[in-house]
Design goal:
about 475 residues; alpha/beta; Aspartate Aminotransferase, domain 2; Aspartate Aminotransferase, domain 1; 2 domains; 7-stranded mixed beta sheet; 4-stranded antiparallel beta sheet; binds pyridoxal-5'-phosphate
Length: about 475
């Protein structure tokens, strides 16, 4: 057991470890090649009876744990969407852990609640959201979307569903490319996945507003209750942007809650040149994006904005005797703004990141990533053996290898094999998706400290297969 008085000495060991990790990061295989149970089998089946030395624990960290880590902060992590971090965010997390505050209500740490309120205002202003929105930090976009659906459900059922159960004729709408967290939330909300209507997309893979309107009208004719439309600013597969403005008009006409999922691309709204993506946002009811994806704030940190906070709170509040306070109604008790009661002090890392970078510093980094992606896309476009599947957007490109004479099935197989081989080399990590039946390779250039030489490394590897 470590003594509190020896904290500095032991912390120095850990800090040195982190410094070495950062220095060596690009030497690690970016994707772990562990096989199932390889790590598990190295960990004793029972806990130690007597305490062990920190040095022994650290030895096992290096020997057992690190080989099973996929290095999300590696500059050549280009898979999925990043969950990037920064020095500032890590340092703030030290303090969050040291404070160990549980920020369920204002009284359990007034500074946490009030810093959260301010940070949400800073971000609201910085990404151009109207002041009619109020923000709260959630753990993930999945939770935020669940919260939006629950609130929409309660409004449409006159706040009876929490008490009496959910009628089976509520309808939710989203494009067929929407993130799987929406399917999950619709299931959890009790509305039922069969009531999630997936609307077809256009050539740019954005939701077709005309088809949405047709589906809503058909549903009304059949006695269904249109409850919530969820659109994406930046779908997971191809970063498609649904037509917010057009869809907002439809939602207004039929009195439907409009939730905007900008989990990844929302960070780009810090850049005035990308505000076109959120045109019409003043008519949405709720909006979510993840600073823990592309805003240099380590996982987890989701910004959820909502206009009708009264309905949100009415949907989620619980007030047992032991949580009653004298300040209720005068302050934000964020336990009523989300699903869990207990809450981490997440605002602190946002404060560190935003203050240390400044808005211009954040914008500079984002523009650099976008410029690196343009460079990447221009390079591969020249090879002749690569098809770029959608116009590159932000720091994202999707593409596939093509070869004369190969049909779709064979081309898909070839691309899958190439991607597996590339990822197995451990030098870079890319991921894939399918557009209709077409297998495509995705690359996101979003690591906090990524440089052109890292992109050149990917290009060199990809060129070997071209
Ligand atoms: N929405 C979109 C568009 C996403 O891309 C993702 C994750 O990649 C999510 C929601 C879920 O995010 P989280 O992991 O914060 O729940």
């Amino acid at each position: 057991m470590l003594e509190k008085k020896d904290f500095l000495e032991n912390a120095t060991t850990i800090i040195q470890w982190i410094q070495d990790y950062y220095n060596d990061l690009s030497k690690f295989p970016v994707k772990s090649s562990s096989s199932p149970k390889e790590i598990y089998d190295q960990i004793p089946s029972s806990p130690p009876i007597h305490g062990e030395d920190l040095a022994d624990i650290m030895t096992d960290l290096n020997k057992i744990i690190l080989p099973g880590i996929t290095h999300w902060q590696h500059p050549n992590f280009h898979a999925y969407f990043p969950a990037n971090s920064s020095v500032e965010s890590v340092l703030a997390e030290f303090i969050t852990a040291a404070l160990g505050a549980q920020c369920m209500i204002w009284e359990t740490s007034p500074a946490a609640a009030e810093l959260e309120e301010r940070m949400m205002e800073w971000i609201r202003e910085s990404i151009g959201l109207p002041t009619s929105f109020e923000g709260v930090i959630q753990d993930t976009a999945s939770t935020a979307t669940l919260v939006a659906i629950l609130t929409a459900r309660e409004i449409k059922t006159n706040f009876t569903s929490n008490e009496e159960g959910v009628p089976n004729n509520l309808r939710i709408y989203a494009s067929k490319d929407i993130h799987s967290s929406i399917d999950k939330a619709v299931g959890i909300s009790g509305i039922g996945k069969k009531n999630l209507m997936k609307i077809d997309v256009d050539k740019q893979r954005a939701m077709r507003a005309d088809l949405l309107q047709n589906q809503i009208e058909l549903d009304i004719e059949n006695g269904k209750i249109p409850t919530c439309v969820i659109i994406a600013i930046g779908t997971t597969g191809t970063v498609a942007v649904d037509p917010l403005k057009e869809i907002a008009v439809i939602c207004k006409k039929y009195d439907i809650w409009l939730h905007v999922d900008a989990a990844y691309a929302g960070t780009a709204l810090l850049l005035p040149e990308y505000r076109w993506m959120s045109e019409g946002i003043e008519d949405a009811d709720s909006f979510v994006f993840n600073p823990h994806k592309w805003m240099f704030t380590n996982f987890d940190c989701t910004a959820y904005y909502v206009k009708d906070t009264l309905s949100l709170i009415k949907t989620l509040e619980v007030l047992p005797e032991y949580l009653k306070t004298n300040t209720r109604g005068m302050v934000n008790d964020y336990r009523d703004w989300g699903v869990p009661l207990g809450r981490r002090f997440r605002a602190l890392k946002l404060w560190f990141v935003i203050r240390s970078y400044g808005l211009e510093g954040l914008r500079e980094k984002l523009r650099k990533h976008i410029q690196l992606n343009t460079y990447f896309a221009e390079e591969i476009a020249d090879w002749g053996t690569i098809e770029i599947m959608q116009d590159p957007i932000l720091n994202f490109t999707c593409f596939r290898y093509i070869e004369a004479g190969l049909d779709l099935k064979a081309t898909n197989l070839k691309n899958k094999e190439i991607l597996d081989q590339i990822n197995n080399q451990g030098k870079v990590f890319l991921s894939h998706t399918k557009m209709n039946e077409t297998y495509i390779i995705r690359i996101v250039i979003g690591q906090t400290y990524v440089e052109q030489e890292d992109v050149d490394k990917v290009l060199k590897i990809l060129k070997d297969y071209a």
